Amino acid sequence: MKTPNARRQDSDPGFTGNGDSNQLNPIFARPGEATDFPLNELPRGESAPETAYQVVHDEAMLDGNSRLNLATFVGTWMDPLAGKLYSETVDKNMVDKDEYPQTAAIETRCWKMIASLWNAPDPDGAIGTSTIGSSEACMLGGLALKRRWQTARRAAGVSTEKPNLILSSAVQVCWEKFCNYWDVEARYVPISDDHKVLDGHDLDKYVDENTIGVVAIMGVTYTGMYEPVAEIAKALDRIQADTGLDIPIHVDGASGGMIAPFLQPDLEWDFRLERVASISTSAHKYGLVYPGLGWVVWRTVADLPADLVFDVTYLGGHMPSFALNFSRPGAQVLLQYYLFLRLGWDGYYKVQKASQDVAVYLAGEIGKMSAFDLWNDGTDIPVFAWQLAAGYTDKWNLYHLSERLRLKGWLIPAYPMPDDLTDLVVQRIVVRNGLSRNLAESLIGDIADAVAYLDALESPMPTEGLVTSFTH
Questions:
Q1: Is residue 469 one of the residues assigned to a domain?
Q2: Which residues carry this modification: N6-(pyridoxal phosphate)lysine (predicted)?
Q3: Between the CA of residue 113 and those of 82, 137, 217, what are the distances in Å?
């Protein structure tokens, strides 16, 4: 007697019957649905929607628990009404402003609110746009810097070859991509124990007449620390006084752009500094929206070269467009507006302060453990990092601790620091909305248990196969 798989193999030449397929548990099956689906080929026939749902749902369960993922900056929770609004508006294409004019109007309201939040001298005279995320926002900011530099150089009758951009060695990878894709030389200022962030130190050694701008980071990805934008601006002021070079700043506020206005309102990092030409942020990080949404705002309309803005005829209408993506979701823009109305300034302050309080608590408790030395304490954005104390142990390292914590469901990455500090391995925790003090206390207990287990080992842990788990 043939098995069910053998019978199906006779009747269906597309059946694989091996490990390269998805097989339903018969207890879930309806008549005719006890079958396999190929993993890497389009199935030959249809299936019931309930069946397809069950397969995808079951596979998604194999992912980690997003609430315990302390590696990612990306938001993992919104309230039920936000979910309802999302499902009602998921079909909107943000770029199709002729078809969805109210969504377009709400987009403008949002970036004007953000311009005001970032202390633009005249929010109505600023210009901004939503993007698919902070990476696109950064690239648009970088493109504007390059085009402004090219325009000024052509007007002066000099070469527009070999533009360069000044960056911290701890910069997010999207800036490396920008420089690669748009033929800009990346000049990295290395961080060190003495200069943990780009702070204006020795900046004159990196800039020249081909420098299109300097990127300052409000919340370095590796550690969560703010770069002192005001100090960078002062260094560029001195350079201009000595050389005549007028070099603008783009602030990459991927995380801090939605933290500093609420938790450090007196910190001057934004458009209060005249040298800041543009600022970007990631709305799906501390903007609290589901991915993917970013924002970029220029101080004035003049700071965004007009020849980068396209007037597009689309579905019977005209619309200005400055984006790398022509079709992207509009629902997230509406979710951002929902949160602005729902929370207001006071609500955002409470949410961000709660995250910061948990980060400071965690950093304090980890800093008390003799095994670790803190790199920072979570008082900038709610993110901090630590290293293994020098000479503490030769039995284990932070990669082993990361693996041990994963057994409890916690995703806490271990990774080497950037160039000039690559021998230093750190761990980092990102506290987001949803990590409660109660969960944080449980995490401290699990870290203490993991350290006790590793300390009790009679011989060193193997180092083969250890991998960096750093997540941007």
A1: no
A2: 285
A3: 20, 17, 21
Residue 466 CA to residue 427 CA, distance in Å, equals 14
In a shared domain, residues 303 and 335: yes
- Tell how far CA 355 is from the center of its chain: 17
- Closest to 21 in 3D by CA, of 469, 276, 191, 12: 12
Count Cα neighbours of 421 within 13 Å in the Cβ-side half-sphere: 22
Those residues of the chain that have pLDDT short of 70 are 1-35, 312-319, 465-472
Nearest CA to 70 out of 342, 353, 352, 470 is that of: 470
> Phi/psi at 296 (nearest 5 deg)?
-135, 135
- All residues at 6 or more sequence positions from 179 whose CB lies less than 8 Å from its CB, including other chains: 142, 165, 167, 185, 186
CA distances from 208 to 37, 163, 227, 236 (A): 59, 10, 21, 11
Domain extent, residue 424, equals: 350-455
Helix (H, G, I), strand (E, B) or coil at 355: helix
Rounded CA-CA distance 154/282 in Å is 34
Tokens of 104: 């377009």
| Bridge partner list, 69 | 411
Number of compact structural domains in the chain? 3
Say whether 435 sits in a helix, a strand or coil.
Answer: coil
d(CA 134, CA 19): 39
Output the CA angle 60-65-68, nearest 5 degrees: 160
Report yes or no on 462 lying in a domain. Answer: no
Looking at the structure, tell me whether residues 54 and 103 fall in a common domain.
no
Full-prediction pTM beyond 0.70? yes
User: What's the pLDDT score for residue 3?
Assistant: 44
Nearest CA among 146, 223, 219, 217 for reference residue 181 = 146
Q: Tokens for 432, please give them.
A: 């987001």
CB count within 10 Å of CB 422 equals 10
Query: How many helices and strands in the chain, by DSSP H and E?
Result: 11, 15
Query: What's residue 35's pLDDT?
Result: 60
Q: Can you tell me the distance from the alpha carbon of 385 to that of 374, in angstroms, rounded to the nearest whole number?
A: 6
pLDDT score recorded for residue 316? 59
How many CA atoms lie less than 13 Å away from 15 in the CB half-sphere? 15
CA angle 457, 461, 465 (to 5 degrees): 155
Radius of gyration, alpha carbons of the chain: 25
Q: Which amino acid is at 119?
A: N
